[in-house]
């Protein structure tokens, strides 16, 4: 019999994974990636320090490998990420004021233009809030206060008017000070006519910690006229059973499906073999590529 795969069930929303092209030589890795998912996000390859390690010297190769993989297997690509406090190359972090602003706009324009037409959505700004809802101290905030946010969205929109432009963050899955600040910002940007089209909820969670108001929280954002997406899902087993983990994965998929305007779910790496979570087992596939109960649970939920 021909086994069904996650992407065969993903009719209402896309189902994606973060991928790294350095693992493509691992045949099981690339086989599962291509068979199961209809969306991918470069795990690190489009981050500034990797893609433009020195001024004007772009290292597009690894990101292009991912885009080619997506084209080969009919997957969409989420571009990740243009402006972040991490992975800022040294040559950028020494700049300030007008020089920094010029470099920021140039980076966004060049990168988004290069991949124009192959990117479904870009995470334009990533992780700009503290837990209490204040703005995170960063090169960007410390130089420009909040004006870099609208400027980044405008530059990305000018470079690729067809890409969906997202703001992305973690610990915003439920109603709290941080998600309230995010909500207020998105509302303000929309009222100012800033081209923002979506909000990404990273959703790095643990079994026992799936917020009961996740869907309600997603829905207040879509009411502002933006899409929402689960962009970096992983669920630490947290000492619980694999079945409990499967139920948690199912709950998150169902939360997305219950909200009109929740467009897709991306898992932040599908296998424990290469997961950024090394202290726990948070992925649907184990480190030997065996499907955990989470895989069937996601399939059933989709
Ligand atoms: C992580 C990658 O998974 C790691 O390989 C890398 O060392 C650090 O970044 N939030 C994000 C992602 O937006 O880009 C991060 O990815 C995980 C947290």
TrEMBL record:
UniProt-recorded Gene Ontology molecular function terms: endo-1,4-beta-xylanase activity
Domain GH10: 1-301
Family the entry assigns: Belongs to the glycosyl hydrolase 10 (cellulase F) family.
Reaction catalysis annotation: Endohydrolysis of (1->4)-beta-D-xylosidic linkages in xylans
Record lineage: Eukaryota, Metazoa, Ecdysozoa, Arthropoda, Hexapoda
Keyword Nucleotidyltransferase: no
Domain of life: Eukaryota
Listed name of the protein: endo-1,4-beta-xylanase
Active site residues per record: 232
Swiss-Prot/TrEMBL keywords: Carbohydrate metabolism, Glycosidase, Hydrolase, Polysaccharide degradation, Signal, Xylan degradation
Gene Ontology biological process terms in this record: xylan catabolic process
EC number: 3.2.1.8
InterPro entries, per the entry: GH, GH10, GH10_AS, GH10_dom
């Amino acid at each position: 019999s021909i086994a069904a795969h996650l992407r065969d069930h993903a009719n209402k929303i896309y189902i994606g994974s973060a991928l790294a092209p350095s693992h493509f030589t691992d045949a099981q890795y690339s086989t599962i990636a291509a068979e199961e998912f209809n969306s991918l996000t470069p795990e690190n390859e489009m981050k500034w320090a990797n893609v433009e390690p020195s001024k004007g010297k772009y290292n597009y190769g690894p990101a292009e490998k991912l885009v080619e993989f997506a084209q080969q297997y009919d997957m969409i690509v989420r571009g990740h990420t243009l402006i972040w406090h991490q992975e800022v190359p040294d040559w950028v972090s020494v700049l300030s004021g007008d020089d920094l602003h010029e470099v920021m706009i140039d980076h966004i324009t060049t990168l988004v233009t290069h991949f124009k037409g192959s990117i479904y959505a870009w995470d334009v700004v990533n992780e700009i809030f503290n837990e209490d809802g204040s703005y995170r101290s960063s090169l960007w905030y410390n130089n420009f206060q909040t004006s870099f946010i609208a400027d980044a969205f405008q530059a990305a929109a000018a470079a690729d008017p067809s890409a969906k432009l997202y703001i992305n963050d973690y610990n915003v899955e439920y109603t709290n000070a941080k998600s309230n600040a995010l909500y207020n910002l998105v509302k303000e940007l929309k009222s100012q006519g800033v081209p923002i089209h979506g909000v990404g909820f990273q959703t790095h969670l643990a079994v026992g910690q799936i917020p009961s108001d996740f869907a309600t929280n997603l829905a207040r954002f879509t009411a502002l006229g933006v899409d929402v997406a689960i962009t970096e899902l992983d669920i630490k087993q947290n000492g619980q059973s694999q079945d409990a983990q499967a139920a948690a994965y199912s709950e998150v998929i169902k939360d997305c499906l219950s909200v009109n305007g929740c467009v897709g779910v991306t898992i932040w790496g599908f296998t424990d073999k290469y997961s950024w979570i090394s202290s726990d087992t948070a992925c649907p596939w184990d480190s030997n590529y065996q499907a955990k109960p989470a895989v069937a649970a996601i399939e059933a939920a989709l």
